[in-house]
Automatic annotation (TrEMBL), chains A, B, C, D:
InterPro entries assigned: Metallo-depent_PP-like, YmdB-like
Annotated organism of origin: Bombella favorum
Alphabetical list of PANTHER family matching this protein: 2',3'-CYCLIC-NUCLEOTIDE 2'-PHOSPHODIESTERASE
Top-rank lineage group of the source organism: Bacteria
Protein name in UniProt: TIGR00282 family metallophosphoesterase
Cited Gene3D superfamilies: 3.60.21.10
Length: 271, 271, 271, 271
């Protein structure tokens, strides 16, 4: 199976770059499945139901979220009608929405998508490792599901690497989000799981993590609050990674960064 | 001028990979200057005076540090005899050592090296921006110094990007350290400064940021303290980036990741 | 000199309790000077210029602030016309307002009021110890000023105790604010400075630090954002402490908690 | 029932003051039950098995812990033989020891003791509210147990007040520990539960939260690590609070601070 994962889509610039390119890339790369983190898709803060639908109509098969999951209150009531939108699994019981979903592709193959949030330097949610264990206990990679993607929305590289090693061999891909900068450590771990510490953002990199740089820098220097941050409006880089998996085992065969447009060095998988 | 910057050297594995390769790479890439962050060179925690000397004898021209600067108490009293070893500039007045140094190359050209530490999710040091301003006010890029390297030792991508934009055009390179994972966002910013959010570590990546993964993961799962962490001993990736600068302006002409050995995809500059 | 210090005034309930009682207490206790922290006076978040004037007209001689200093943007432009309103001294140079003021009483005696913010688990401001040193270097307790009050707005007890010991003998009173709960450790330190780790809030204690408890607890349990917090509207306890100083030395002779109204055990100084 | 709760016992000074006074106080105050937090009893860091036994032999009926629970590795293996020593309940499943215990008094009455740790500005443990719910679901106040004490080991006043209100009416006492400073907000909440945000420490208050002040202040000023902190050795204040409960309902009838010796103003319950 050929999977594309895209990191945090930030604002209009990020959204438009994804929607303009995605159908072409699906074809060019013979993609079976696209997952995107969209916690910043609505003007940098949260995801509106309309934009969720636009992304799902525009070639994204499943959407993950993060600490900004609840910024758009109108999404909360609609999460139940959007089964392909998942929020971090380690929110307490009774939280709206789901922490994972299984997407059935037109060909009939099934892909498990899990979203989980780290706890270091982030809000104190429930144990993310236990949350992932509970989800994985209900599925068997290479059995009930043909592939499994785990989006670890976390601040520190250590916590993300912990997830990588712990679930190595049990999911197809462990990929980090949240820092909005792609890492260059994509690889297949010893147990067969593709791994990258952060997928990077889909947004304008001439910015501070996707937001207009002037205000963000003023805040760092002055400490006195400034205007509310606005997403930077320059040309976005669409950033993520592509994985090819073995449908029998669900493990990764190849992994390659995907970066198109904007300020970063492009990378297009050639498998 | 042709500069190589190497990220946090971690333990014996990282040190040996750097020392074994560096003389060859200096020649192969016609390097004029090598800067390395060595805050984890001594068994993962700090830098002993002996290892500082080994690195300086082995092809490193200047060493930067970070939050682990003081882990080896024997270094503190010797910092004054090691002028090419710099600790973060924003420690309070009276702190041993210096936050910057100027290295004069055999050819007579001068390179300013600055080390500074971020404050988000780190110890509350003095204002890092003011510390860098004070240092830069005494030097002129393309005038009194031919190149200038700023190592921003920080946790968050936002703070590092703030430094990149703020000093764009005033130094040759702004590069982050501390997260131990290389980022894939190397580029030359609008004002001519080369930038990469993190240089990555020189160490074994089959680990949790360079430390043995079993213990690190057990700590994440169990919370009860484990044995003291040990550096992972597998084959290291030497990770950093190379920059070519214009000696007249001191600004960057080319930038390319440098990665050799170990688990990560290799990258060798071809300019 | 007889000084009353009141902790963080929270919302209408806290404001009204202070304004209703203060003139009577000034007389009853023969107070020479009243200082109040008012960072939460305007509906729990910040201080409006109008409420600042109401407090200053109502018997408060000087107002201190904290991390909520900038919540009310209309205050920022008016800080220069409100010399008796001080914000934390360790904001960077160029920040609106002042970190200290000298109030001249009708009798001609002068009182130095300093506000400073801790850095542990708070925003990374400049070194608060250096900021206080710079202010104290311009004044002499028992010389140019007859008394000096230092409000340490900080999260941790350790940082506040550090301030107490460090400035023991150099100011009349070191008192903490920010936690909204009075501590029972009021005393005169070895060097003659009155000390209390936190003055407590002037607000409704049937709450979570002055805010309505239902919403605050729901946020702790659910993690999903709730409505914006509202100040609790029940009867406030006015909480602080009274200090009597020696006008010759400026040091403390007596210290006693002051608590009136609401849910806490009352305490009225009897000296 | 007449209960005494003592806050964090720090080092030799705190231990000796408790052991010297406790048998007298038990008699003088007709105490039925004494609970003490002892996470810092062994030289400021952790609790050795021997000191645990000394305290249990010396008049303490149950011991609670906190973030320092694991500082003394020799305690870990012996927790199972020390059923009256409880560690925070919200450590993950499989953690040595228990998060609560039921002490049966010589008269046959039973007291439930719970220890839980907050998550704000502390290690990311499991949900402390859920942990307490699970324990309380197995006991009925005024039914299976005659009294129940909940020690909330936490940094912030807000989290502690959240616990107070949430369990108001369901336990006899909610008391905070960890900040090492007693608060003056002891009271009986609307639902009948006695509450105090922090019990304070049993230790030398001429210190920084019980540790020698010189080193602690040097660390705040210099940032470069100093010697390992040592407990302050001056005369300790024994600090806590006394509660009288109704054996039928288990709720509180009276609450009063208990403070004896050392630098703080003494308080001796007179009921
Ligand atoms: Fe994001
Ligand atoms: Fe995020
Ligand atoms: Fe570091
Ligand atoms: Fe490091
Ligand atoms: Fe505050
Ligand atoms: Fe406040
Ligand atoms: Fe503690
Ligand atoms: Fe403690």
């Amino acid at each position: 199976m050929r999977l594309l994962f895209l990191g945090d889509i930030v604002g209009r610039s990020g959204r438009e770059a994804v929607l303009e390119g995605l159908k072409g890339w699906r074809e060019e790369l013979s993609l079976d499945m696209v997952v995107a983190n969209a916690e910043n898709a609505s003007h940098g803060f949260g995801l509106s139901p309309q934009i969720a639908r636009d992304l799902l109509d525009g070639g994204v098969d499943a959407i993950t979220l993060g600490n900004h999951a609840w910024d758009r209150k109108d999404l909360i009531g609609q999460l139940d009608q959007l089964p392909a939108v998942v929020r971090p699994a380690n929110y307490p019981e009774g939280t709206p929405g789901q922490g994972s979903c299984v997407v059935t592709l037109p060909c009939g193959r099934k892909v498990l998508v899990i979203n989980v949030m780290g706890r270091v330097f982030m809000d104190a949610l429930d144990d993310p490792f236990r949350a992932v264990e509970q989800i994985l206990s209900k599925h068997r990679l290479g059995g009930t599901v043909h592939a499994a993607v785990l989006d670890v929305h976390a601040e520190t590289t250590s916590e993300k690497m912990g997830f990588g090693h712990l679930y190595d061999g049990r999911v197809s891909l462990v990929v980090g989000t949240h820092t909005h900068v792609p890492t260059a450590d994509h690889r297949i771990l010893r147990g067969g799981t593709a791994y990258q510490t952060d997928a990077g953002m889909c947004g304008d990199y001439d910015s501070v993590i996707g937001m207009e740089k002037e205000n963000a820098i003023r805040k760092m220097l002055k400490k006195v609050p400034t205007e509310r941050f606005q997403p930077a409006g320059g040309k976005a880089t669409v950033s993520g990674l592509m994985v090819e998996t073995d449908d029998t085992t669900g493990l990764a065969i190849r992994v390659c960064p995907f970066r198109q447009g904007g300020d970063l060095l492009p990378s297009m998988p050639n498998f």
